[in-house]
Amino acid sequence: MTTMPPFPDDFAWGVATSAFQIEGAVDTDGRGPSIWDGFSHTPGRIRGDDVADTACDHYHRYREDVDLLRRLGVDVYRFSLSWSRVVPDGLGHVNGAGLDFYDRLVDALLDAGITPMPTLFHWDLPQELEDHGGWLRRDTAEHFARYTGVVAERLGDRVRDWITLNEPFEHMALGHALGVHAPGHTMGLAALPVAHHQLLAHGLATRVLREHSAARVLLTNSYSPAHAASDDPADHAAAAAYHALHHGLFTDPVLRGRYPDLSAFGVDVTALDFVADDDLAIISTPLDGLGINYYNPTRLAAPPPGEALPFTMVDFPGVAVTDFGWPVIPSGLTQLLTGLAAEYGEALPPLWITENGCSYRVEPGTDGRFHDQARIDYLDAHIRAVHAAITLGADVRGYLTWTLMDNYEWAEGYHQRFGLVHVDPETRDRHPKSSFDWYAGLISGQRG
């Protein structure tokens, strides 16, 4: 493996996690239930019926985890706050004990010389809000803005970098259109209000954060470049439709103040009854950065007759896949980063890779170590893809890999392993893998 080329001196290196996937302590300190608590405890919803009641027990072992971050040498740690730990019902009462936990975590990170980058919403909506209609209701965005104000009032004197939402497309599509994630709705395109109300929440929260401090605010979207399966115009139309839904729906309103053309889905974006007059002005409040979550591109073909969607997903032939079955195509990340710059021009803020990683399960070797060479190869190739994009003019400020440690991988339970650190399923003890040492060495080498 050749030496990694040098990145800019101020380029930031980090890792990312999320609250529900690692914290555990679901009945601790007054935390209320989230939609993922009930969903994960419903038989048949999660692979192996795994639950996250303990997860990685990060709530009790956060100091140990901060020490791992210090050993790794990261500049930035992206984590999320549990809305239901801070405002248990999502509506009113503020739980001071929950805020105390994040207070302690932020202080521990700063003491270790690590910049905290909290995400305010990573899919774990308080159950009480869901019982009132969840993201289908406009006032959920207003409740999110109030929660943001509570957090900013407590942490804003020390936290300067915030992410409002994580992957609103996945939360809409997997949680509300297809039902494979919490809250488990199967609404199809009737889930579009979920997209708009999440974006409205982002815009309102951005304004709240700037009222409380000189904060830098990002939105994190997932991106998957759309590849037509052939030169057939019908396949190109399928790819364009997918691009509009996955990419444009959550980027155009933020950067351009308008929704993309969704006519391929039979949707007239000029006649959406859930969009109020000033909403797009709020949603397009200028950002300080755009978070990019990249795992793979998507190959699209024209759908068979009778399908509800104007595309169908097909495999990339002859391409290696991760344990999740996701194709390993590092060049897609270069394509994405340079493509965003070409598509949005001066409207595009600086970019951050806020997630990029791979699931590979490995067993300990004869020496007791977890030798995950496949993960090292994946990360090496994708980081080089980021470097290639920078040399082509993309303004990328940092790279955060997913994830620090093996965790609760949503509907896959504990069956998918993305971590640089192995977590023993019984003891929750942490065991850094070979990829941990490799990433620490890369970061150290970039600093000269």
Write a brief structural summary.
The protein is of the alpha/beta class. The protein has helices at residues 19-22, 35-40, 58-72, 83-86, 96-111, 127-131, 139-155, 168-177, 192-212, 233-247, 252-256, 279-283, 331-344, 373-391, 434-446, and strands spanning 12-16, 76-80, 115-121, 161-166, 216-223, 226-228, 289-294, 298-301, 312-314, 351-355, 396-402, 421-423, 430-432.
Describe what this molecule looks like in 3D.
α14 links the parallel β10 and β11 (396-402). It is globular and about 55 Å long. The chain has a single domain (12-446), classed as Glycosidases (TIM Barrel), CATH 3.20.20.80. Helix content is 38%, strand content 15%. It has an eight-stranded parallel barrel, surrounded by five helices. The chain is built from 15 helices and 13 strands. The relative contact order is 0.14. With 448 residues, the protein is of the alpha/beta class. The model has no long low-confidence stretch (mean pLDDT 97). α8 (168-177) runs antiparallel to α9. The protein has helices spanning 19-22, 35-40, 58-72, 83-86, 96-111, 127-131, 139-155, 168-177, 192-212, 233-247, 252-256, 279-283, 331-344, 373-391, 434-446, and strands at 12-16, 76-80, 115-121, 161-166, 216-223, 226-228, 289-294, 298-301, 312-314, 351-355, 396-402, 421-423, 430-432.
